[in-house]
Amino acid sequence: QGTAAPAAAAAERTPYAYLDELERDTPRGAMRGFFAAAREGEWEEAARYLDLSALPPGERETAGPVLAQRLKRVLDRALWVDLEALSDGPAGDLAEPELADHRERLGVVELPEGGRVEVLLERVREDGARVWKVSSRTVARVPELYQVFGYGPLEEWLPAPFFELALLEIQLWQWLGLALLVLVAWGLSWLLSRVALAVIRPLARRSLTDVDDRLIENGAPPLHFLLALGVFTLGVLALRLAVPAERFLLHTVQALVVLAVVWLAFRLVDIGSHWSGDRLAERGQVSAISMLPLARKGVKLFLAALGVLAVLQNVGVNVTALVAGLGVGGLAIALAAQKTVENLFGGMTLVVDQPVRVGDFCRFGTQTGTVEAIGLRSTRIRTLDRTLITVPNAEFSELQLETFAARDRIRLLHKLGLRYETTPDQLRCVLAELRRLLDEHPRVLPEPSRVRFVGLGASSLDLEMYAYVDTDDFNDYLAVQEELLLSTMEIVHAAGSDFAFPSQTLYLGRDAGLDAERARAAEARVAAWRAAGKPEGEGGA
User: Fold this and answer.
1) How many CB atoms lie within 10 A of CB 378?
2) What is the per-residue pLDDT for 9?
3) Between 462 and which of 13, 218, 361, 455 could a Cys-Cys bridge form, CB atoms 3.0 to 4.6 Å apart?
4) DSSP-derived secondary structure for 54-111
């Protein structure tokens, strides 16, 4: 066989020209012809691919089609044959030394009780030619295998079309069974979950915490879905589908199970976040509460990544190589997503440094608004016009941020302009009454609190009223300010004065000209200084 193996390999690379009308010259051609005849329901023709030499000649014509149909069922259920893996040369596969040259193994059927049955092709002589057929030894085991992998009592209960009509290797009765199975799985899981909730909810209401109530309400939908998937999986195994169809459905169920587990984990993360927020609020650690949304999103992103990797692994993707490839391509991704990474770190800076928190009313740049959310990429702010501004975190963290939520008091500062007709005594009266007003008001802090006469304006006597209102609520501050301003008006009017407004006073009169007598006296004095020889300007000395 040392020289035969290279020759067989060379033959594999060259398409074989079949001589047998059924293409039984090679193992691949024989099985391809068998499956083609089986898909068309031509069981008499499919029987020609079986070695029936062990049967009595009188039984071959009637037993052959039945054995072919049953073998196809066994192969569908227990051994899916890859035609491309079979040899396409007349000599068969010479790479298995434990087999004779005239045999080739299709595979091994594992029996539930632990036995093993080899499914073999054998090269036999027929009408003077050598062709490949399913071996007589395998054909002899078909009735035994069909007892295990056949339809059972369904074959007697259902009409033949339910088994003969098929789509995607799934027979008509199996399609109907899948549709019914979906309804049964969903209905049974719903019923079981309702019963479980009816038992658990009264017990949860007796507890002192609401965590168990949240667990029940938030965890019920994904658990319901998982229960439905479990019932559906048991039903799929009972439908006895073909190997590829069953594998596809089971892989799909596995992917859905992973998604359901991730869904449940998301719900648990939300519950844990709410619980942590309540505990932090009770302890007065308000600054730490604003970190919870970003932490919750980060944990969910990590769980979603794990879920995607689990799904890919279940469908046959090499996750180890994928993770290694991600490590190699991480630098390129980081460079391509530079702005995204910059915004991510900007969001982390906002959460850790906390210049503003969610719910704070702040001024950023030239605009003001209330922070609604600090996300992984951007911060959303609701303006006074009720519009929503989205600012990238990298840009937002570099702005000068002024938060009004952190102030413990609000400043009251007003300049009052009184008319120039106000006398000094009236002004002293107004100042004294305003100081008394601030000192006696329960919402005004005593220090610093002042009312001063600060200037002579162009059209008014200017007073400054300065104090702090003991509140951090702006609406409350406006109410106090309104009350103080109304009282100020009453004090000014009670003193007989009034508030000034920009004005000009024009005085009209006749011009008397220069005083001639005084002018002559001044000139005489200067003339006397000159006659005495005194420097000008020192005559008075």
Assistant:
1) 19
2) 46
3) 455
4) TS-HHHHHHHHHHHHHHHHHHHHHH----GGGS--STT---S-TTS-TTEEEEEEEEP
